[in-house]
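Hello Y.,

Per our agreement to keep a running log of every chain we model this quarter, I'm adding this entry. I've kept the format consistent with earlier entries: sequence first, then predicted structure.
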Amino acid sequence: MKFIHLADLHIGKNINGFSMLDDQRHILEQILSYVKAHRPDAVILAGDIYDRQLPGVEAVKLFDEFLYSLTELNTAVLAISGNHDSPERLGFASRIMDGRGVYMYGAFNGAMQKITLNDDFGPVNFYMLPFVKPSFVRPFHESVESYDDAVRMIIESQIIDYNQRNILICHQFVTGAGSAPILSESEIGPIGGIDNVDIAPLLNFDYVAMGHLHGPQRLIKDCIRYGGSPLKYSFSESNHNKSIPLVEISAKEKAADIALLPLTPLRDMRKIKGPLNELTKPDISGTGNANDYIHVTLTDDEPLIDPMGKLRLIYPNIMSLSFDNARSNSSPTLDINTDDLKFDPSELFEKFFLDQNGLAMNPLQKKTAEELLNKEEVL
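Predicted structure for the entry above:
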């Protein structure tokens, strides 16, 4: 049995005002090319298919095109809702889609949904568990108090034959056995550990296809894995190597064979750092794709006029700008006391300028400040 593990597509996502739809279309086309090349029996979507509960029309259209293309390739699709999805909307028409081999589990209904596919070694059971909160599970298990309780009770209440091959698809923040997953800024971070789910109930599955965290990573062992988002969605992911797991399982007693298929974005997300005049030189800007999504850190100590405008001429998709210089590294505080009353307004402004910027005013700046202060006095 061969399947591809996808998660956290976040279709329709916007970052710093930039729509990611073209980038997502590009990456979904790459994924489809892998499906055509490797002919998996199934494609797993482990939650956060959309970026928000009410996705835009273009986002819905893109996902519809992707699903249709998968069905045309005769591969089963097993999808669950994540914390960003609307469970009810994602599950719409799921009973109709079952007939095309597209299994969508949106709103939790009291148990995991079991889908069984067969290969030469017999049945492979896929257990689908959408994102759950304790409140989602309490109508079915009154004693649930935590996220950990919720997932554990759902799994323990399910009749599972562990002599067969079993795959779990889930979308939770899983920790345990001293192993903490790597987080990214683009995720909704855990709040004080209240949404942690212990890994123990997951250990008996032959493969656990997890969503929720954007960094592709294993947890304790290779067969318990976060697929990761196929695109970088924050600059904390700039060093990530995005990929999708291609998993093949054979006999029950054999470990899963996992290959990571690399993904190449339309535009990368990366950081550059240096003085403005260096970063705008062709030999620097030409070292990467100037159309990438860029975070720039400027190291100039002197004041700059419209640095963002000058950078956008070279890097049109610059997303954010920060400074790392003497002024930004100091945290000046203004100590206003009665001694300051001895200074005239011009001297006070010079003191303020020095405290805020770490350098004295030049003659032109002094002249401009004095003219403005004198104008205020006239008014």
